[in-house]
Write a structure and sequence with these properties.
Blueprint (H helix, E strand, L loop, with lengths): L22 H30 L67 H17 L3 H14 L4 H13 L3 H14 L6 H15 L15 E8 L3 E3 L2 E12 L11 E10 L5 E3 L5 E4 L11 E9 L15 E11 L2 E8 L3 H4 L8
Antiparallel strand pairs: 1-3, 2-3, 3-7, 4-5, 4-8, 6-7, 8-9
Amino acid sequence: MTRLPSTPLKLPTVQYPTRVRPKTYSVAVYLVGGVFLLQLGMLVSVFWLRAMVVSVNVRPPKALVTTSGQRNPPTQPSSIGPIAPNPNAVPTQPDLPSLPGLAITAHIPALLSVPGIADKLEQVGTLNEEAQILLHQNDLKNAAHVLNTAEDIDPRNPTTLKNLAETYYLMNDSVSAKNYWQRLVDLGPGVGTVYALAKDHVLLLDSTADGNTLNQSSALPRMVYINQVEKTPVETINGQPQFHLRTVLMRKKASSLFDQKKLQPYVIFYQQMPSGQLVPDLAQHKGAFEDTFLFADKKLAEPFGVDYLMPTPGLPGADKETTGEYYGFIIGIYYNKILQDVRSEPADLVKRIPLPEAIE
């Protein structure tokens, strides 16, 4: 019996179906990647913005500290009078006035027109908005004229009186400014939070009527200088006496380049110890500029403020010393490590404890 060669049995090849990804899969991948990049960009921007913020120093510059790490010996109070101005110095004035505290709307190229209706409240509101636009353009004269028109419609409107007070202050008419602040005070607490603000300004204008040196213009030909300093009356909040110190810095020229990273403001508060010595108050104080990007878009004025908590005499303080009484403060502005301007209260304090002309 003859065997025939057997043919190997070929099994059919199994064909697996090709997996086709839907188009939405690619779209989802791109979306996830886009979200990741967006989050990464936001994270980087947070660190960048933090680096741009200028902090207000409350400790003395290093030049006032000896090499051994101890503070220079505090000085005894003296009877030195206010610092006499330099007769050879040429006082400088800001190119444009500062805008302290006035709420300014965004720049709008066209002025608003007063609606031809009998609603006085709407007319007054529109006129105040128009005045804010003019103030943003530094057109103080026309802003005052518009606000006077609003005053004629409603002479008791708190917003109009507040804006008039601040406008006349910018026009260096402190008498008219005080008059409008006083009219707000006369209206009573019913006008809202502006009542307390008006009382503070009346006191401040009273304190500057006799030539307070805190508001004198700088005579130094430097990059930036202190235009004005305002100190609110001491008030007790949560059982802690405190006051707010507000300073407006001005730039000499809007066309000059300004690097805010080179700006170093110092606000140093001093205590008078039972022995009569003056020592810096190294407690933590809150201070900051009102804006993040300083002197941007040819802006000339930049305000910053510091909240100071009054010490309680006799309590244990820093360096195992008892706490003294509040005595005064010194404000020093450095740019590119060079002293630009300085103010103090009392006026002779900066003469007894001078700031260095340059810092490390």
